[in-house]
Amino acid sequence: MKGLVVYKAFFATAFAVAILFFAICAQAQDIDQNIITNITLDAYGQPITNLPPSTQNSSNSDVPQILPRSTWENTIELKNLMLWFPEEDHVPPDYAAIERIIVHDLGCSLSSPACNSDTVNPVYLIQNIYRFHAAQRGWDDIGYNYIIDRQGRIYEGKFGGNGVRGAHAYVSSRCENFNIGSVGILLLGNYSSPQITPLPEAMQKSLVRLSAWIAATNGLDLTGVSTEKIWKNIKVSDGSCDISQGDWSGTFSGPVLLSHGDVEPGNSDKFDFTNLRIEAKLYTDKIKNLAYRENNSTSAYKISDGVLREFVSGSQDEVVVMPKTQLDLFPIEVSTKLPDGTLLRSYTRDRIYVIENGKRRGITSSELFTSLGYKWEEVKLLSDRGLALYPLGDSKPYPDGALVKGNGPEVYKFESSALRYITSTALFPIFHFSWSKIIKISDKDLNSYSQGPPILFPDGTLISTGKPKAIIYKVEEGQKRPISSMILFAKLKLNSKNVKKLSEKEVSYYPSGKYISWPDGTLLKTKDNDKIWYIQKGFKRWIQSAVVFKAAGFSWKSINVISADELSDYPEAQVIAKKADIKAAPVAVVQGDQTSSGQASSEQPTIPGATSQESIIRIGIYSLLSTESISISVNSAYTITRTSAADEQKNAGDMVNIVPSQNSVIRIIPKDDNAIITVNSYSNPAYNGGNDNTFRGKMEIAYSSASQKYWVINELSVESYLKGIAEMGNGEHPEYAKAFMTAARSYALHYVQIGGKRAGEIFHLNNTSGDQWYKGYNFELRAKDTVVAVLATRGMVASFNSKPILAAYSSGAPGPTKNACLVWGGKFCTADFPYLGGGVDDPPSTVYKNIACSDANHCVGLDADGARQMASIGVNFENILKTYYSSTILTQIYK
Asked: How far apart are CA 155 and CA 130, in angstroms?
């Protein structure tokens, strides 16, 4: 084909650009040459004749034949690599109308004999590209929609069919995602030097026909120039792209058929398609009115706008016979969707789903299928593209009481649709579990279910590791409460034969509770202090003198020596100053400057300039349209201020409706500092059925030129903000809670001090989990432990170079914490972030909620699961923070 000219540029190839895929923003890097150089010897000499022929569709030579994924995804190992399943209603969109075709070459090294080889089986190349994309890059599938080999064979690439979002063209310099609304075609080989490595004729012909086919079935004009909307993300202050926020605010003007270098200037995939567009347009005109049917089928379809539409053929109409796999790339136009209760699966995958509330819920095993009373003959088969029309819901749970396990030894019991881990094999006879009834499912399916609390021994059970001098615990309210000595063990008339011997890991599942209390009348003291305490109704009372001690008839031999930590579990009551005081009921006392041990209390260090003045933070709650009103009321008198109008005074309970204005900043300012603002028009469902739409502080409605949106902003003190963060629930160990809230405060104040997370934005953070999950005042009411931890650590931050750190945290997973430089790159590779260098191992017996790190569970900084375990074994919150954030110190930046 004449006129196909390739321009060489000395930049990364199409295969090596930054790509946004499945909410992962990959950094630009060169091609992994192992894809080519590590081709196994078996790949050489594989007879190319073993592959399907490179001819066009036998019914019409103008229509290309597209070989299905099964041509190269031909083993269980390869099928299991694909973990990404597109959905119709995903954000960013998994499906969009096709607007352009973007062509790439592989960019392999020409020095490799396998690069432009006609003797290497192309299936091996595709499989290695797939492994690199899905496994090494973590994209869970191959990035290209179609692949063309040197013999002209066309292969289906990305799972999901016509219009699915690929992973081949993301322009990170502009935060523009060209994967949405485009088709990515990969040419196997390197064609950057046309005089040395010209495009094979068969490959050129297939590129023409494939482009024409895509144009004909999606209504494209290949010779036209279009200006289309591009999905665009927000650029944040460190220069990276915030993939959690995006819309169709970008634009691109250019040819419909183009190369990667046309989309991203400087990319080496730069082709001159002038003549190719003209030739492809001729083919488009020839095939655009064709109808299609499967072999041995009477049903015919026309394909327009990416949809199969039923067609009744006449004598003059040409109907082309086409493989079912190629027709299945398109959804069939239907007037109604399948009803609830329908069983379905795709032709290419084994997973069966049931439709419930319009969503498909996976049935994770044949045992579950049978137990739910379903019938195999009622399963309806759909194409992959047709299946994606139904949003993916949660997997169908097993009935209560069902026992399941994955590849590991852990066994779980289903209760209320959630998994509960059975923490010890010794629990099987206690709860009458049967080993023979355990159902084996995949780890992927196991992780798709939510987890409830672990199954522990019943209250009253005695547990221990059985090691010499190991602590014996008594289980009470699901906690392990230590019995501090065998003297107390005997006083409680317990029997050592009843102690369950567990592993350290099994014991670790029980959160630590307070020490088991000594009986009333017990005398206690600590090793390092001479004060003697009298235990009465759970309180400790100081016997003020030896005279009182003797007068009360106590014996020095009856004194039990315990640790200061155990003694601190008892609240202090009034002093016993004379014998008669013993008969008085204990009354709690408030401590002064001295602790109950008689030692001066210690204070946390403060940095120079620390004051009682805390910082103010601005939180973006949600964006709204210019015509969308917001309804607000306050439980106290308040003022409405506008930059373009006079102030308005309102009474408590007055409800106002406000429409945003680009020329005016509108603020709601309560006259009572403790007032609560309700945003009546805002829906933010809480787990308890309520609506988290109440906030402390002030509210603001303003236009942001950075994001070009109107925002509802909550402005309040940092300490009030922290009380509404929903990253931690009730029931956590107090030391973990203090460590976590100190990290959350450090994270917030880091961004307050640098002016916000997103350059030019009018708020510091938003209220999503991508920043910190903020729910406001209603959450504060139901999360007492969060409030207690905030109060206990007021003003405390982890700091580096006298500044609050960017205290990244996540749930964590087995293995050392990750280096932020390797995970996120950019500014995290500078000397400002040594505390996020990773390499921290969690304590033994840590229980993980996730089996691996991911984009959301990044494993950088504080590992929540590991921090919980540290707290349970007695590590205080200061040392938890110093462990996960090396090179930092704990400081108090306000009092």
From this structure: 13
According to DSSP, the β-strands at 403-405 and 438-440 are parallel
Close Cβ partners of 463 (under 8 Å, ≥ 6 residues apart): 457, 472, 473, 475, 480, 499, 500, 502, 507, 510
Distance CA 104, CA 116 (A): 15
For residue 428, give the 3-state DSSP assignment: helix
- pLDDT at residue 645 in the model: 79
Band the pLDDT of 688: cuts 50, 70, 90: low
Q: Tokens 């100081």 label which residue?
A: 542
Q: At what angle do helices 864-872 and 877-884 cross, to 10 degrees?
A: 140
Q: Are 734 and 867 in contact (CB under 8 A)?
A: no
> In this model, does residue 218 exceed pLDDT 60?
yes
Measured distance CA(183)–CA(178) in Å, rounded: 9
Give the C-alpha separation, 67 to 53, whole Å.
10
Q: Kindly state the average pLDDT of the residues 779-798.
A: 90
3 state SS of 573 = strand
In the predicted structure, residue 12 carries a pLDDT above the cut 60: no
| Phi, psi dihedral angles at 202 (to 5 degrees) | -65, -40
The residue-averaged pLDDT of 362-388 equals 89
Tokens of 812: 């964590």
- Residue 432's H or E segment, with its range, is none
Residue range 172-196, pLDDT digits in tens? 888 889 999 999 999 999 988 777 7
CA distance 513 to 463: 14
Which residues, 6+ apart, have CB-to-CB distance to 565 below 8 Å? 874
- pLDDT, tens digit, for every residue of 501-553? 999 888 888 888 889 999 999 999 998 888 999 999 888 999 999 899 999 99
Q: How far is CA 597 from CA 522, 543, 545, 563, in A?
A: 17, 13, 15, 11
| Tens of pLDDT, residues 699-722 | 999 999 888 899 999 999 999 999
- CATH 3.30.2390 spans which residues of the chain? 523-583
Give the class (CATH, top level) of 5-288: alpha beta
pLDDT score of 91 more than 90 = no
With a CB cutoff of 8 Å and minimum separation 6, the contacts of 316 are: none
Burial class (CB in 10 A: 0-12, 13-18, 19+), 469: exposed
CATH number of 523-583: 3.30.2390
Q: Where does 377-456 show beta strands of DSSP type E? A: 379-382, 403-405, 411-415, 418-421, 438-440
Q: What is the 3-state secondary structure (H, E, C) of 702-721?
A: EEECCCCEEEEEEEEEHHHH
Locate CATH 3.40.80.10 in the chain. Answer: 5-288
pLDDT at residue 127, as a whole number: 92
Q: Round to whole Å and give the CA distance between 137 and 143.
A: 10
What is the model's pLDDT at position 164?
92
Q: For residues 89 and 19, which has the higher predicted lDDT (pLDDT)?
A: 89
Residue 1 vs residues 186, 216, 754: alpha-carbon distances, Å: 18, 21, 57
